Amino acid sequence: MKEKKGFVLYKDQKDVIDDLTDEEAGKLIKAIYEYETTGELPELDRMLQLVVKPFVSTLKRDKVKYNEKCQKNKENAEKRWKKESLADINSTLAEKFKMFD
Q1: Which of 1-10, 43-52, 86-95 shows the highest mean pLDDT?
Q2: What distances in angstroms separate CA 24 from CA 29, 39, 47, one per listed residue?
Q3: For the purposes of burial, counting CB atoms within 10 Å of the CB of 57, is it exposed (0-12), middle (13-18) or buried (19 or more)?
């Protein structure tokens, strides 16, 4: 499956970031990028470890939804491809059998 190029931060998460100092907010954002890139969180102080958990939970939930959507789209594309292929085959066969009429 193709790798996602991005991720979403939600507006309701802004309140948490606004309550942090600029330095803490920077560390948090960098930790989120690290998690999304590698699947691992960097070492954080205790307070930021607590703050990052809801962000990670949301990212995990979004990733599951994304993968489910991709799988569903793949299945739908395969169904459509089969239908179109069968229609093409049937059309071709029908034209060939017209020659014998």
Answers
A1: 43-52
A2: 9, 20, 9
A3: exposed
| Tokens of residue 2, six digits | 């193709």
> Quick check: helix, strand or coil at residue 42?
coil
**Separation CA 37–CA 6 (nearest Å):** 10
pTM of the entire predicted model: 0.72
Name the packing angle between helices 22-38 and 46-98 (round to 10°): 40
Which residue bears the tokens 């560390």?
Answer: 27
Is the pLDDT score of 53 beyond 60?
yes
Q: Return the domain boundaries, the chain.
A: 11-76
Q: Provide DSSP, 1-35.
A: -PPPS-----GGGHHHHHTS-HHHHHHHHHHHHHH
